[in-house]
Design goal:
The chain has 15 helices and 21 strands. The protein has 454 residues and is an alpha/beta fold. The strands form 4 sheets. Strands 8-7-9-6-10-11-12 form a 7-stranded mixed sheet, with helices on both faces. A 6-stranded mixed sheet has the order 16-17-21-18-19-20. A 5-stranded parallel sheet has the order 3-2-1-4-5, sandwiched between helices. β4, α3 and β5 form a beta-alpha-beta unit. α5 packs across α8, α5 packs across α9 and α10 runs parallel beside α12. It is globular.
């Protein structure tokens, strides 16, 4: 594989430069003095930011975008071999690498690299760790899969030897990384268009855990049997976190205050920090425990961990308050697109004493919807009414004949619509003054919230 020498900046071209992760990596290279070009389908805030930093970006992917002065091409999993820029780079013999390959090479340049993995919770936990490290004046470089207010975007380029990134298992991307500290939040069935089954996923996480060097650390969820299976029989240092004292890192004095958790973090039986989270949900208490496990290993004082966690108010599209409808209904948006994430989010919402929870859900990909169909039905039964949007295709075609209306038929009281305008009209007519309207999904369902509060 082509190796980038960060001491000799060259010209790197990104196919799909506007993606949340690709744009972050491009910005890191710009900060390192590289020449960066790229293409994307549409202009966005992320591409505008890169252009302002000196990147040359074109909109629309064409063979002529691949020029003689390009030293290497980076592409995402969404780019297929029939892409004209992909084909032209191959024809010219220009070295090519995936987004994951580049992220791994960037990691190698840092003395401590924290990789946050798991079926869900990666963005929130990466953001929490970032808040802690900023509070501890560690000056990290960070790439996160969402917009984090504390760093003014999805990327932060620091001057220390510390790097923090999300580690996605899809297509085994995280096996290209070089972490010194790993966080495994949970291991569940997902991305079944790539993995054969849950055992295949556990095996992948096991290989990921073994990437940790002997002097590194694997932080793993003691409450998750699949996560514990993933780290079984590895000869690396392991630190578990969980809700009981059977784990190395666990909470005591736990209080649930209208969905917001207050607790004391204990590490190996000793008090480390007292946390009062500003984001709701029991799952966020677990995320915070994982952060404390990694932070303490890095020598971060408990006081800094405490302040960093208490400051964290969420990242974009993670139980994000959109506003209130004219009649007083509260509108919140959440990225949950796996049944376990959905259950966690809905469970949090139920602790917050709204009259009803109206969940406008957009399934993400046909294969996930088909593979986890009963689980989606079960998750949506937790809300008072489910409103289904058409499935967000992402990289897929509907070759398996699955539709959102199929879910709606199985969930009592659920309805499905063909357009966001119809969903917004329905919610305007049916949401009450003390109801929660929750737009949920990893696609573009988040555009419905602003339609409701105008």
């Amino acid at each position: 594989m082509y190796q980038i020498d960060f001491n000799k900046p060259e010209h790197i071209h990104f196919i799909g430069i506007g993606g949340i992760s690709m744009s972050g990596l491009a910005e890191i290279l710009l900060e390192r003095g590289f020449t960066v070009s790229g293409s994307d389908a549409h202009e966005s805030e992320l591409t505008d930011k890169l252009t302002a930093h000196g990147a040359k970006i074109v909109y629309g992917q064409r063979a002529e975008n691949i020029t003689d002065d390009i030293d290497a091409v980076v592409y995402t999993a969404a780019v297929h071999p029939d892409n004209p820029e992909f084909q032209e780079a191959q024809r010219r013999g220009i070295p090519m690498m995936t987004r994951a390959d580049l992220l791994g090479q960037i990691m190698k340049n840092y003395g401590q690299a924290i990789a946050v993995a798991g079926t869900h919770g990666k963005t929130t936990t990466t953001s929490m760790i970032t808040e802690i490290l900023l509070e501890a004046k560690k000056d990290p470089t960070v790439t996160v899969g969402g917009i984090l207010h504390a760093i003014g975007g999805n990327i932060r380029v620091g001057k220390s030897d510390l790097f923090v990134a999300e580690a996605c298992e899809y297509t085994n991307s995280f096996l290209s990384f070089f972490p010194t500290i790993e966080v495994i939040l949970n291991v569940e069935a997902d991305h079944l268009d790539f993995f054969k089954d849950i055992n295949d996923i556990i095996h992948s996480f096991h290989e990921f855990a073994e990437l940790t060097p002997m002097n590194g650390l694997v932080v793993v969820n003691h409450d998750d049997p699949n996560a514990m299976r993933a780290v079984a029989h590895i000869d690396r240092r392991i630190r578990t976190f969980g809700t009981t004292s059977d784990a190395d890192v666990y909470p005591t004095e736990v209080r649930d205050e209208n969905g917001y958790y207050r607790f004391t973090v204990n590490i190996d039986g000793k008090e480390y920090a007292k946390v009062a989270l500003s984001v709701p949900g029991r799952h966020n208490m677990l995320n915070a425990l994982a952060c404390c496990a990694a932070a303490e290993f890095l020598g971060v004082p408990g006081e800094a961990a405490e302040k960093g966690l208490n400051k964290f108010t969420g990242s974009s599209r993670r139980f994000q308050l959109v506003g209130k409808m004219p009649n007083g209904a509260t509108v919140v948006d959440d990225y949950a697109h796996h049944p376990s994430e959905m259950k966690a989010t809905l469970s949090t919402a139920k602790e917050m004493h709204f009259d009803r929870i109206l969940c406008a859900f957009q399934p993400h990909t046909y294969t996930r919807t088909k593979a986890l169909f009963p689980e989606f039905v079960d998750a949506l039964k937790q809300c008072d009414q489910a409103i289904l949007a058409p499935i967000y295709a992402a990289r897929e075609q509907n070759t398996i004949g699955i539709y959102s209306s199929d879910i709606a038929k199985e969930v009592p009281g659920a309805v499905s619509f063909d357009t966001f305008d119809e969903i917004a009209d329905y919610l305007r007519k049916n949401a009450g003054p003390n109801d929660l309207v929750l737009t949920m999904g990893a696609g573009n369902i988040n555009t419905v919230g602003p339609m409701l509060i105008k």
